[in-house]
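Annotated sample (chain length 215).
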Amino acid sequence: MRDESVGGWLDDLASASFPPGAGAAAAMNIAVGAALISMVCNHSLGHPKCAAHTTGLTAARETAENLRSTALGLASDDAVAFSAVLDAHRLPRATDTDTRARATAVQEALTAATEVPLRMARTAAEVVRLARRLIAVAKADMVPDLAVAASSARAALDTAAVIAEANLSVIADTEHRSAARLQLVHSLGAVTESEAITAEIRARYTRREPPVTPV
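Output written by the structure step:
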C-alpha cells in the first residue's frame, strides 16, 4: 500500500479479489486524517501568529506522522489477518477430526483478525483527539482541515466497529468478546468528539448566516 498509486489501489479495492477490503479502506481513512493534521502543522509552523506554539505544533506533526505510518501498517496487517481467516475456512471437512480442526483454526484466525480493527479504532481515536488539540493553536485558515481530518478518522472508527462486531459475533470465547467490546466502546467515544469538532468549526463560518429552510 505504501508504494502503490492511489488509482491502482482503488482498482484493487474495487475488484472481486481480496484483499484489500473494508479494513484497508478504514486504514486509508486514518492515514488521510493523519496526513491532513501534518499538513495543518506544516502550514502553521513559521507563521507569526503561531510562533508561541512552535514546540506543540512540531510535536503534533511528529505524532501525526507516526499515526499515518501506523495506519498504513494496519492496512497490511488487515490483509494478512483476512487471508488467514479465508485459509482457515478453506480447510478440509472430510472427517470429524478435520471438522474440529477447521473449527479451531477458524476461531483462532477470527480472534487474531479482530485485533486489527480494534487497533484501527484506537489509532483513529488518536487522530480525532490530536485534531481537537490543534484547533486552538493552528493557523486560522487551516482549522477547517482539522474538521476534515477528524471526519476521516471518524469514518474509520465506524468501519472498524462494524468489522470488529462482525468478527466478535461468531467468536465463541465470551471472555474475549467482552474484553474486545470494552476496548471498542472506549475508542468509539471519539465519534462524539469528531462530531463536536465539525460542529464547532462549521459554526465559525455559519453563525452570521440566516438559517436555511429545508425545501
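Annotation: Helices lie at 6-14, 22-44, 54-89, 96-134, 143-168, 174-206.
Annotation: The mean pLDDT is 92.
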